[in-house]
Amino acid sequence: MDHESLPIYELDEEIVSTLSGGNRLVLEAPTGSGKSTQVPQILLDGGILGNGRCVILQPRRLAARMLAARVASERGVKLGGEVGYQIRLDNVSSRDTRILFVTEGILLRQMLADPELRGISAIVFDEFHERHLFGDISLARALDLQETTRPDLKIIVMSATLDGAELATYLGNASFLKSEGRVHPVEILHLSHEPREDPIWETATDAVAGHFDDTEGNILVFMPGSYEIQRTIRELQARLGSRCAILPLHGELPAAEQDKAVNRGGGRKIIVSTNVAETSLTIDGITLVVDSGLARIARHDANRGINTLFIEKISAASAAQRAGRAGRTAPGVCVRLWTERDHQRRPLRELPEIKRLDLAETILSLKAAGVGDLKTFRWIEPPDSAALDRAEFLLRDLGALDAEGAITGLGRRMLNFPLHPRYARMLLAAEELGSVRAASLIAAITQTRSMLLKVDKRIEEERMEIFGGGTSDFLVLMRVFEWARSRDFRMNECRTLGIHSDSARQVGKLFDQFLDIAHAEALLIEDAPPTDEAVARCVLAGFADQVAVRKNPGTLVCDIVRGRRGLLARQSVADGSRFLVAAEIAEIEGRDGDARVLLSLATGIEEVWLREMFPADFTDRAEYFFDKSQNRVVVRRERVFRDLVLENRDRDAEPGPATSSCLADEVLAGNLRLNGWDDAVDQWIHRVNFLARLCPDQGLPILGDDERHHIILLVCDGATC
């Protein structure tokens, strides 16, 4: 297809004329209209960019790379020249690049390095309906820049399903254009009854096989993740054999494998993809879509204090996007693996990330950009105040912000890592401790579901005999991972010890990613294994907000910082430690129906490490109270880390002002009587006060509460009981 025949070219002259006279444009265009690849070219060829560059934000790395390759091919230029892309750990661009596709975090970091965005003439926010957190923040920063020092900057916001008119209102004086596109009819089929407990890949295979002979084009199957994609491909191959090519498509694949799924030609094929094929990427010739109705959605995991991916039902808007893939070039069919009744209950759109993610990384970026008051920032939708407070507390605990909320030198170093601040802090500590490799593996372990399955007592004991030892649950899991990797994650061998082979394999992929980031930041990756202490200190650095102390050696009950209390997991190898840090704190329902807080992924630590790493967070407190059983004043001395009491001791109070004040308070409260102070003394005070008020000229003092307290203090001076 000639790219200039795409529907978006119905608006090319309007786009150029609108941006020639104004600097803000909202463009609404349906899936397959060509907006992602053609609008940047329209801007360049229409003279809108002048001598500058157009930067196009994409929510996904795969889309950024593939769109850049498509545009370079259409323009007959080498990728990295006039057209390029930049994603994490991969920069294929040059000084000559005029059209640059980037992921959202790349632009935000460039705004920190060069607040003026010199050399950039236009920013295109693509697929903005997905409302990614960095996209929201980058748009707000770009608007501020345009209204201050860069009035020439062009801002274009594009999507297929956003409420364009509403967004244009947020942007102020933005123009609004809409392309109707040319979409063929798509027949939507739902399940007639609630799906059985069969795995989703089996249900999807049934749907593909049932419509395979009734359709002629390519088939697109949506699955939530790489594991489900692998299982679906296995089922399809068993059912269809070699009748067509069956290819995966997701972000973890090598580039060549991704290209194979998207490239034109090569006969009929089935592409089994994550939601990366839902927007931006267009796969030609799709006439059948089979939709699992599921996706991995990023959310804040309160248990681990990080952002992670959960498999959830997609929204109605996402379902419409997926169905539209079947009608781009011809009439098509979309089979939804859920009932129509279920569809009616689904939300219209996904909740924006700002409402569901941990904000620590975003707030750190804003603080580095000089944003002082987060509550007055130009949010498209303001986050919950509790989420803002939680993120700021965490950043202070990690040392990224000071007590006044300003970014520290350590915080600026943490920003260099494209990671959640917890992991950035861990890697920086690991560099000093010679344990970067171990810290990378620990970070990977916290990002996945547990590698250890529930097993009977015999296998559990055998497992601990092989992998146990030390005072950190991470040491156990690191040994589990190495054991599984040495056996190439073979399912049968892993199953004998209750190891989840697919989870271990996923840890391996994340481990490599963390090592790549460490290498990109020039951290020294050691060969020798680190000490157990180095591992424990790294965990403490990243999870300093989850320090706990055992109540006593005979119990698993722990006090946790920020006034919490929980129970250490029974299986934890840290059960012999008095002080510990838990990477996971979960609220679970007990047998009696009450909620209990459970600490897991625990690591034993030493108080001296806390003092060395967080010296400003220690205080010594003394509380004086009257002990009725001893009939004397007792002083309770406490050693406190933040608000967590590490140790307290009661001792008999020595004579002094604090002791006297405690005794006086007890007397005034009526709990103690002074020898010789009886009703006659009280009556005398009443008479003196009466006379002082009756005859003010006599200059008699009135003995009020303050004077009474002072007299009693004098009487109690030097006493302890």
Quick overview:
The chain is of the alpha/beta class and 721 residues long. It has 25 helices and 24 strands.
What features would you describe in this structure?
- This protein is α/β, with parallel strands linked by helices and 721 residues long.
- The protein folds into 5 domains: 3-178, P-loop containing nucleotide triphosphate hydrolases (Rossmann fold, 3-Layer(aba) Sandwich); 186-354, 3-Layer(aba) Sandwich (Rossmann fold), CATH 3.40.50.300; 359-415; 417-613, no CATH class; 621-716, no CATH class.
- The chain has an 8-stranded mixed sheet with strand order 4-3-5-2-6-7-1-8, sandwiched between helices.
- Helix 7 packs across helix 8.
- The longest helix has 20 residues, at 501-520.
- The termini are far apart.
State which percent range the strand residues make up.
15-25%
Low-confidence stretches: none
Query: What is the general shape?
Result: globular
The count of strands amounts to 24
Please report the distance between the alpha carbons of the first and last residues: 96 Å
Strand numbers in spatial order across the main sheet: 4-3-5-2-6-7-1-8
Secondary structure class reads: alpha/beta
Supply the number of structural domains. 5
Instruction: Give the mean pLDDT.
Output: 88
Query: How many H/I helical runs?
Result: 25
Main pleated-sheet profile:
8 strands, mixed
Helix content range of the residues, please? 25-40%
Work out the radius of gyration.
33 Å
